[in-house]
Sequence to fold (198 residues):
Amino acid sequence: MIGFVDAPEPLSGRAAENLRYIRQAMERGVTFTSIPGLGGAAMGVVALVASGFAARQPSGDRWLVTWLIAATVAAVIGLVAMVRKANRAGAPLTGANARRFALGMAAPFVAGAAITYELWVVRSFTAMAPAWLLLYGAGVLTGGIVSVPVVRVIGLCFMALGIAAILTPAEWGNAWLAIGFGGLQIGFGTYIARNHGG
Fold:
């Protein structure tokens, strides 16, 4: 009795599967390099200005509003700079690594917004600085997994500043925010601009 042999898989099916595998492997191997260097430095300047204004506010509420306005302005600067850098490089912000970067940053940022609201409700303004530094650092660190190594270093530095803000007097919180969102952003933004473009 002659056995039946399954028909061979068509060559086009194997070729399509191989191309899909190659594309996925390349996406995993490519780093997300649209982190804005000059935009990051500009975000740092916004934070330094905000820290000066925030330090002179007569109430915790006005201090918080000052920082929230600065965060909004900095976020817009960062997004515009990221889009411009991606366009110059011909790297769409809709790719797999861009989505991974955004997802890595999203959870800590949403947690930061929720924690800020709760701290405002209970009138605990002094806990905001360490929380912001730690959660921003966690977001940059996790998002940076698909980016150049310096991005993960930035995240670790922010987290270290958050821990320092916990271990030092609460009145130093505004200064820690200036060092982190101001100094670190300017320093690392300049480094990224020089070594990784724009």
In short: Residues 47 and 182 are 5 Å apart (CA to CA). Residues 11-196 form one domain.
